[in-house]
């Protein structure tokens, strides 16, 4: 089984400074793990929560894509998928959206049950930024969704033309004088005890957004 190690920071040139050994201080290292049947991905970030998800591009489903979307996604996301006529393209867009949502709820520290996918929509804007919006609240729904926030940065990549990987990291730079800084993303291909190779910038890692 292959392993993928992902380092994130904002800005990319940020120096890593380890804090003193004080039990009352929060450690700066955050990590998150995801896996498929043939790949393990570990996301690592400094001083910011991180979520990561990886899925096979050709993952088989027992139900139709739109049936799954209606069960888990928001109406606006279902409508967007329904407009895609080609079934293969529709499945790819579904998996991209799923990985982004999964990475987001994992970064929140809540997981799927704590932050259901139909509570928020994710949209890819024309400037390649990913926007999060709360879904309209159902009248008898006690979940206020107050835990949802927009101060997050995303990266969506294609690995070895076989997987989609989404990374979500808290963006503490929003509202600062310099605006939102770029997300630094470095990816290593790791075979335990055999190989640990930086593959960012190669054909093995294609940045989608």
TrEMBL record:
Its EC number is 2.7.8.7. It is an enzyme of class 2 (transferase). Keywords: Transferase. One of its GO terms (molecular function) is holo-[acyl-carrier-protein] synthase activity. Gene3D superfamilies: 4'-phosphopantetheinyl transferase domain. Signal peptide: none annotated. This is holo-[acyl-carrier-protein] synthase. Residues 49-168 form the 4'-phosphopantetheinyl transferase domain. Pfam families: ACPS. GO terms for cellular component: cytosol. One of its GO terms (biological process) is lysine biosynthetic process via aminoadipic acid. InterPro entries: 4-PPantetheinyl_Trfase_dom, 4-PPantetheinyl_Trfase_dom_sf, P-Pant_transferase_sf. The lineage of its organism: Eukaryota, Viridiplantae, Streptophyta, Embryophyta, Tracheophyta.
């Amino acid at each position: 089984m292959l392993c993928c190690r992902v380092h994130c920071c904002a800005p990319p040139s940020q120096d890593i400074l380890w804090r003193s050994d004080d039990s009352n201080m929060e450690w700066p290292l955050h990590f998150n793990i995801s896996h498929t049947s043939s790949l393990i991905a570990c996301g690592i970030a400094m001083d910011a929560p991180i979520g990561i998800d990886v899925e096979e591009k050709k993952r088989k489903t027992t139900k139709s894509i739109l049936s799954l979307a209606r069960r888990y996604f928001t109406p606006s996301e279902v409508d967007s998928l329904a407009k895609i006529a080609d079934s293969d393209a529709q499945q790819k867009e579904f998996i991209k959206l799923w990985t982004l949502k999964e990475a987001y709820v994992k970064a929140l520290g809540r997981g799927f049950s704590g932050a259901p996918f139909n509570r928020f929509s994710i949209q890819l804007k024309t400037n390649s930024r990913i926007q999060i919006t709360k879904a309209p609240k159902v009248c008898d729904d006690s979940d206020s969704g107050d835990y949802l926030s927009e101060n997050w940065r995303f990266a969506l990549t294609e690995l070895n033309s076989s997987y989609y990987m989404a990374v979500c990291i808290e963006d503490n730079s929003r509202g600062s004088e310099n605006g939102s800084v770029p997300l630094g993303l470095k990816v290593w291909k790791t075979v335990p005890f055999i190989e640990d190779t930086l593959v960012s910038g190669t054909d093995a890692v294609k940045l989608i957004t």
